[in-house]
Design a protein that fits this description.
Blueprint: E1 5-8, H1 12-24, E2 30-33, H2 43-46, E3 50-51, H3 62-81, E4 85-86, E5 90-94, H4 97-112, E6 118-120, H5 122-128, E7 136-140, E8 144-146, H6 148-159, E9 165-167, E10 172-179, E11 187-193
Helix pairs in contact: 1-6
The structure holds flavin-adenine dinucleotide.
Length: 194
């Protein structure tokens, strides 16, 4: 099987790359190789299902920008394709005096990252999360929850109609590199599948 791109791993990263390659360059031959018998069987399918806001990242960093944009685009994707999600927000609390300055730094960071954020005093927090006691808290309304397994199922549904191939039960156990003979200077990788 000769392909333009072989992607190893059918978690959210591999599936997203395969989907986007096919969308950007129709006609590309893309194969996604997954060792398990189903997609999203590892981290992606077992994570906490949070669509993060990016509050923790350094203002101006690529991570901060991508988390903010990723939050919006993931919610928009779920909305467009009918995947259940909830923009439930998140509270971060300081339970001890010593944590207050760290919370204040996070507040400054959130503002620098242009994230909507609310400062909460103990009474206000009680109404949102009655089980959390705090001296001070932050509420970030954009944090959301979703099943990334469902997101992956939707991603996978785009790949094959675009001409891509998903091969389950296909573990890559070796990669060898060799030069392609004349006229083509690219390096070809051959994959050994289990
Ligand atoms: C406990 C926990 C909670 C988390 N919570 C969140 C959260 O709430 N929100 C969030 O955004 N992120 C969260 N993350 C991070 C997030 O889950 C990961 O960043 C993301 O799932 C990584 O996706 P991936 O596709 O790189 O990896 P994976 O989902 O692990 O996919 C890798 C795939 O590659 C396959 N594979 C491996 N080796 C081979 C091989 N040799 N041949 C073929 N296939 C192979 C595996 O079977 C697997 O399916 C959490 C992570 C953890 C550990």
């Amino acid at each position: 099987m000769k392909v333009d791109y072989a992607i190893i791993g059918g978690g959210i990263l591999g599936l997203s790359v395969a989907m986007h390659l096919g969308q950007r360059q129709p006609g590309l031959r893309v194969v996604l190789l997954e060792k398990e018998s189903r997609l999203a069987a590892h981290q992606t399918g077992r994570n906490s299902g949070v669509i993060h806001s990016g509050i923790y990242y350094a203002p101006g960093s690529l991570k901060a920008r991508q988390a903010r944009e990723g939050n919006r685009s993931m919610v928009a994707f779920c909305e467009k394709y009918g995947i259940a999600y909830a923009v439930c927000g998140k509270v971060i609390v300081a339970t001890q005096q010593a944590e207050i300055s760290r919370l204040d730094q996070l507040l400054a960071r959130a503002r620098a990252n242009k994230l909507a954020v609310e400062l909460l005093m103990p009474e206000a927090n009680k109404n949102i999360e009655p089980h959390a006691r705090c001296l001070k808290g932050l509420r970030i309304p954009s944090t959301a929850i979703v099943s990334y397994q469902e997101v992956c199922t939707k991603f996978s549904q785009f790949i094959e109609p675009q001409g891509g191939v998903i091969r389950l039960n296909s573990e890559v156990f070796a990669i060898s590199e060799r030069e392609i003979p004349p006229l083509d200077t690219r390096t070809r990788l051959s994959l050994a599948l289990a």
